[in-house]
Amino acid sequence: MTDAPFPVSVSVVVPALNEAANLPHVFATLPAWIDEVILVDGNSVDDTVAVAGALRPGLRVVTQTRRGKGNALTEGFAAATGDIIVMIDADGSTDGREIIAFVTALIEGADFAKGSRYAPGGGSDDLSPIRSLGNKALTLVTNRLYGTRYTDLCYGYNAFWARHLDAMALDCDGFEIETLMNVRAAQAGLVIREVPSHERSRIHGASNLHAVRDGLRVLRTILRERTRRTDRPVAVLQEPATA
């Protein structure tokens, strides 16, 4: 850790499957003060692990036991040792330089810092009209069912205090992992702050995301979680601090 701006330790979890060409850019954006980077390798057939190790001395590598982004993240979270856990993508779409904003939100009182491409200051170079429409519809359904005020449900740039992992009890394997985290954070009564984030386009390769198939998985997750019992209050969406 170099010149750490916070009195807490920070782990960054990076799920990756055949992302060797993108990792030099991704790792170049990570702040030097991060305590731990965990690469969760989905049994890549390229040089993902070797490239990551050469770029980041002290890198921890977790080999995924099943398939899917959700499984990769839950295994990475379980291996993390930091007080705060940040999740970013390995395709270059999430900017590691934004991590300071997520950690700041947590230090200032949030339990869960949720990236939003629709919050003032956020944006996306990658959202197609159909994906944006689907995301907005799923966000609306979630807000209606759970009393939340999210602006961007399906975005994978988030950070949270590691002590809240048990409250979220994550148990899914696919792209619906972000939705499950958002819903269960609300069910657990966590204090949530949205953090403006700008999504870039994937640099190399093709995404494994399928808008219709994965959108239906997200919808099923939203509806299924309504039957999950919880005795805790709905989350508080905390407004960003003002100067």
UniProtKB/TrEMBL annotation:
<keyword id="KW-0808">Transferase</keyword>
<dbReference type="GO" id="GO:0016740">
    <property type="term" value="F:transferase activity"/>
</dbReference>
<dbReference type="InterPro" id="IPR001173">
    <property type="entry name" value="Glyco_trans_2-like"/>
</dbReference>
<feature type="domain" description="Glycosyltransferase 2-like">
    <location>
        <begin position="11"/>
        <end position="132"/>
    </location>
</feature>
<protein>
    <submittedName>
        <fullName>Glycosyltransferase involved in cell wall biosynthesis</fullName>
    </submittedName>
</protein>
<dbReference type="InterPro" id="IPR050256">
    <property type="entry name" value="Glycosyltransferase_2"/>
</dbReference>
<comment type="similarity">
    <text>Belongs to the glycosyltransferase 2 family.</text>
</comment>
<dbReference type="InterPro" id="IPR029044">
    <property type="entry name" value="Nucleotide-diphossugar_trans"/>
</dbReference>
<dbReference type="Pfam" id="PF00535">
    <property type="entry name" value="Glycos_transf_2"/>
</dbReference>
